[in-house]
Automatic annotation (TrEMBL):
It catalyses: 2-phosphoglycolate + H2O = glycolate + phosphate. Gene3D superfamilies: HAD superfamily/HAD-like (3.40.50.1000), Putative phosphatase, domain 2 (1.10.150.240). Pfam families: HAD_2. The lineage of its organism: Bacteria, Pseudomonadati, Pseudomonadota, Gammaproteobacteria, Enterobacterales. GO terms for biological process: DNA repair. One of its GO terms (molecular function) is metal ion binding. This is phosphoglycolate phosphatase. Belongs to the HAD-like hydrolase superfamily. CbbY/CbbZ/Gph/YieH family. It is an enzyme of class 3 (hydrolase).
């Protein structure tokens, strides 16, 4: 018999929050403020969403991650995030997320976040949107040595709950989330309403791909209410 599902780990951008357009705007505002050349197409920025900020800016600027220009971009982006994204945090929640998380919490699941955002931004977004109280633990990029897709953040969450991988599931919208889950050894739900297309997600072999947050909730409720053989 497999153990009951009890720990659900969530990504933020593209999974709980529809932040793609706002993030692209914040990236462009960063380039403009620092008088740096901007990517020609929004898709170039979109493809970096989910990466640690240092890696995203390094990729877009063809610079080293530890270079001063990248550091300046990360700092300016944090300022733009506070101005452009935080004020509309509640509006950025995908349909059904707030109610679905509350239902899962009320059903006894332990909810956590693993994100490649910095802690300051991630926690501010959760608080501003009104859902911070639903999560017991939030593991961010600046709280681990190795960021997603490395398994460190997922393993830290399991250690917090004294849970085994078989009792947990990762919910995310990119291959970074799927690959992290595979390394942790837990199940993984990919959502195709976020950053990456369904075909890209499928190639990384998640347990299931769903198209709405209500599908996530229903999948978890089914596996949390009974053991499977």
């Amino acid at each position: 018999m497999k153990p009951h599902l009890r720990v659900i780990m969530f990504d933020l951008d593209g999974t709980l929050f529809d932040t793609a357009k706002a993030i692209i705007s914040a990236f462009r505002a960063t380039f403009q403020q620092l008088k740096l050349p901007e990517p020609a197409h929004d898709e170039q920025i979109r493809e970096t969403i989910g990466l640690p900020l240092e890696r995203a800016f390094a990729q877009l600027l063809s610079q080293a991650e530890d270079g001063q220009r990248v550091t300046d971009c990360v700092e300016e982006y944090q300022r733009q995030f506070q101005t452009l994204i935080l004020p509309m945090a509640a509006e950025l929640l995908f349909p059904g997320v707030a109610a679905g998380l509350f239902q899962l919490k009320q059903s006894g699941f332990q909810l956590a976040v693993t994100t490649n955002k910095f802690a300051r931004s991630a926690n501010a977004l959760l608080i501003a949107s009104g859902i911070a109280g639903l999560f017991d633990v939030v593991v961010c990029a600046d709280q681990v040595k190795d960021k997603k897709p490395a398994p460190e953040s997922g393993n830290n969450i399991l250690a917090h709950y004294q849970a085994v991988a078989e009792e947990s599931v990762m919910v995310g919208d990119t291959t970074h989330d799927i690959l992290m889950a595979h390394q942790v050894g837990c199940q993984v739900i990919a959502v195709d309403y976020g950053i990456q297309h369904r075909t890209i997600l499928a190639a990384a072999k998640p347990d299931i791909i769903v198209s709405s947050f209500s599908d996530v909730v229903n999948w978890c409720l089914l596996r949390g209410l009974r053991s499977t053989s």
